[in-house]
Design a protein that fits this description.
There is one protein chain. The protein is an alpha/beta fold. Helices cover 42% and strands 17% of the residues. The protein has a domain of 224 residues: NAD(P)-binding Rossmann-like Domain (Rossmann fold), CATH 3.40.50.720. Strands 3-2-1-4-5-6-11 form a seven-stranded parallel beta sheet, sandwiched between helices. A three-stranded mixed beta sheet has the order 12-9-14. A two-stranded parallel ribbon has the order 7-10. α1 runs parallel beside α2 and α7 packs parallel to α9. The longest helix is centred in the N-terminal third of the chain and has 22 residues. The structure holds uridine-diphosphate-N-acetylglucosamine (UD1).
Length: 339
């Protein structure tokens, strides 16, 4: 496919991997990122991976003039929108900032798109928009709800887009609800790189593996799951990135708007993750069992059959690929910083 794509949040974890996948698929890409949660050297690394210069606008989606300027400077054909705040716990402490960035930022972007005559958007949503359920795997038709401000902003984001679409039939959207992203690009040049102590399992294990944290705290081993620890649908970040390309390809080819899950349809426990990561890094990683984390569910995994049928998208990588690529990235990054 050809066309010029505005990729907001393109220096972030999923955004940078999606940049690589979009370039490989033949798209021109313009990144807009404020680097609030991305390292400054990511664009250089993307240039090494893709062998081509990166076009970057260092700006915030809340800056309406800067967003409009991107559409004046480039002939954009479609937008893939990642730029957002994403920490669940933090969203409970500063809800207004989350609503501002995730919802007002999206509105600014949609207005700039409309004013520039650009009507195709792929939106980074989350499986967190589903109401609590014990009915797995979760299909797209499952009831929606939210248990955090972060989740609310993703749900609102979906609704803002569908409301806009209802007003003008030129709009086409791909809303992608993803499960738990993990792993890194094969080059080990980009990956998840949290600046603080991570809340999520994979980056936490990665920091234990490189010795930046002493041990993993397993939040409960008395859940009604095969080994008692929480089960989630971990998906390789490159599979996720390729899902964005498939969604965009469908819109660029004149396809209809869609809302799909991007998950594997399989659940893995915390112990499965720890075992796979221990194999990847070559030593048994230390852990202790602590009480359950408030708000956690025993089990959560998606039904990816709609994405397969509609977009021809399927995952190509397994749990060991996620842990191995995560380890390759984090150990290289850690050695580089140390030396
Ligand atoms: C969390 C968010 C969810 C968000 C998702 C983004 C909560 C309650 N939920 O989901 O809204 O969409 O991240 O990826 O924050 N675990 C440990 N020790 C740790 C960290 C996690 O045992 O140090 C366990 C958890 O109990 C859970 C599993 O690992 O069973 C995965 O946890 P996590 O990576 O935080 O993801 P979710 O809880 O699925």
């Amino acid at each position: 496919m050809s066309g010029t794509i505005l990729l907001t949040g393109g220096a972030g974890y999923i955004g940078s991997h999606t940049y690589v996948a979009l370039k490989r698929a033949g798209y021109e890409v313009v990144i807009l990122d404020n680097f609030a949660n991305a390292r400054d050297d990511v664009p250089d690394r993307l240039e090494v991976i893709t062998g081509a210069p990166v076009t970057l606008h260092r700006a915030d989606v809340l800056d309406k003039a800067a967003v409009a300027e991107v559409f004046r400077a480039h002939k954009i054909d479609a937008v893939v929108h990642f730029a957002a705040k994403k920490a669940v716990g933090e969203s409970q402490k500063i809800p207004l900032e989350y609503i501002e960035t995730n919802c007002t930022g999206l509105v600014n972007l949609l207005m700039a798109m409309r004013d520039a005559g650009v009507f195709k958007i792929v939106f980074s949503s989350s499986a967190t928009v589903y109401a609590e359920t014990e009915d797995w795997p979760i299909p797209e038709s499952a009831p929606l709800g939210y248990a955090s401000t972060y989740a609310l902003t993703k749900l609102m984001g979906e609704q803002i887009i569908t409301q806009a679409a209802g007003s003008d039939d030129r709009w086409r959207h791909g809303i992608l609800r993803y499960f738990n992203p993990a792993g890194a690009h094969d080059s080990a040049l980009i990956g998840e790189d949290p600046q603080d102590i991570p809340n999520n399992l994979m980056p936490y294990i990665a920091k234990v593996a490189v010795g930046e944290l002493p041990e993993l705290n397993i939040f409960g081993n008395d859940y009604p799951t095969p080994d008692g620890t929480g089960v989630r649908d971990y998906i390789h970040v490159m599979d996720l990135a390729e899902g964005h390309v498939k969604s965009l390809d469908a819109l660029m080819a004149g396809g209809d708007s869609h809302i799909v899950n991007l998950g594997t349809g399989k659940g893995y426990s915390v112990m499965d993750m720890l075992a796979s990561y221990s194999r990847a890094c070559g030593r048994d990683l230390p852990y202790k069992v602590t009480p359950r984390r408030a708000g956690d569910l025993a089990c959560y995994y998606g039904d990816p059959s709609k994405a397969r049928a509609l977009l021809g998208w399927e995952v190509a990588r397994d749990l060991d690929d996620m842990c191995q690529t995560s380890w390759n990235w984090i150990s290289r990054r850690s050695n580089m910083r140390a030396g």
